[in-house]
Amino acid sequence: MTDARAALREASARFAFSDTPRLDAELLLAHALGITRERLLLTLGDHAVPTTFVALVERRAAHEPVAYITGTRAFWTIDLLVGPGALVPRADSETLIEAAVAHFAGGAGPRRILDLGTGPGTLLFAALAEWPDATGVGVEASEAALGWARRNAAALEMEGRVALRHGDWGVGVAEAFDLVLANPPYIATDAELPREVHAHEPAGALFAGADGLDDYRVIARQLPALIAPGGAACIEIGWDQRDSAGALFRAAGLAVAVRADLAGHPRCLIATRPTG
Q: Does domain 76-272 fall into CATH 3.40.50.150?
């Protein structure tokens, strides 16, 4: 393939299984050329297609996630390094940062941030980028994922602002935080997933028991002690878990609100300590 437009058409046709075949092709070609996607689109007619693009297309055609192939994923205002062992950041999760921004609107913002199950640091580093005076703690049970978080701390020059810990949710965390973030596993064990997710992304970051609520049960018990007065916890949920997950946090004595994602699906539980 030598013509960029033709190459993108052919690659997009091979990615018909994807929700975003054209975008996938553009990201891979930009990566092969060593430029941004935006630059590619502005200069599409100027580029011959490098031979390396063929290999990238083959990997994507085998359902490997684009983020694993390119090694990066844009999220909120930052670019994250990702690869095998790390959950690929998804746009839906930006709803948690939006909810946090809304909670602290008009105020000083959080000074201390906790990210439970930080993975490659997706939510933690996005929040730290939003509030430059804040510091944070990321807790992660997977050493592989924690390795990606450490790489991102260095790449984003935030090593001095974060403590990254190997741990099980809030176990051993003795501090209360202004903002708690969490995107725990919430998929039922027998649920069907796209091949690229099931075959490549870590099962430990996806599945949470027969009803998808196992990790919410753990976090709900721990959360009241982790939220500082005036603070909030923003927790990702599946589109059909507003009532089931919300009931667990209400039973723990927390007030719960819900924020929808851009598709209108319930995506974020905002838990706060009741006043009065």
A: yes
